[in-house]
Amino acid sequence: NAGVTQTPKFQVLKTGQSMTLQCAQDMNHEYMSWYRQDPGMGLRLIHYSVGAGITDQGEVPNGYNVSRSTTEDFPLRLLSAAPSQTSVYFCASSYGRHYEQYFGPGTRLTVT
Amino acid sequence: TQLLEQSPQFLSIQEGENLTVYCNSSSVFSSLQWYRQEPGEGPVLLVTVVTGGEVKKLKRLTFQFGDARKDSSLHITAAQTGDTGLYLCAGRGGADGLTFGKGTHLIIQP
Predict the structure, then answer these.
(1) What confidence tens digit (pLDDT) does each residue in A1-36 have?
(2) Hey, which bits of A1-112 come out as E strands?
(3) Most B CBs within 10 Å: which of A93, A101, A107, as the mutation test of the B interface?
(4) How confident is the model at residue B103 (pLDDT cuts 50, 70, 90)?
(5) Which is nearest to B68 in space by CA: B49, B40, B41, B42?
(6) How far is A11 from chain B (nearest CA, A)?
(7) Cβ proximity of A47 and A56 under 8 Å
């Protein structure tokens, strides 16, 4: 049981490049979410999904896209990276939006 | 929008000392979760408190939920270097799911 896995662990992008952060969970959780964590800002919700085929925006969705084709996977796409997207990104899964969140190890992204 | 204020933002103490950190809001939460995050890792749930006035103990950690369910505290007795980390509280209340505080950075000096 691997829990929540994220790849890559570290990434450096140039402004304007695109990339996908991968997230997978093996706990059969319906709810998955993406957060970004910045110094002094805490954890902020980017997008979330309550099940395969259903996604919705969180607090800071601009510049990010998501899709949920399977229960297990919830990738986060940056279409045109900006320096403001430099952050640590966490994927989480749970039985529901109000329940214990199981977090992945994070992806540290730097946009230059 | 429901907000959770955590204090202090930073705390550095010597091993063996006691400490308390706080999580406060003007909003009522149906439950509150405490997480600990170690450097380079994701947050991990420590405890969930549900009932106003509830006290839960986890070895040297004591969690209390305020009677009005607007605040919570975490008390650590005889702190150890392994307690070092970022402590986050998260409230269950609105339709948006969990509301996270910004956390307390705790450093326990040997």
Answers:
(1) 789 999 999 999 999 999 999 999 999 999 999 999
(2) 4-7, 10-13, 19-25, 31-38, 42-51, 54-57, 64-66, 76-78, 87-94, 102-103, 107-111
(3) A101
(4) very high
(5) B49
(6) 14
(7) yes
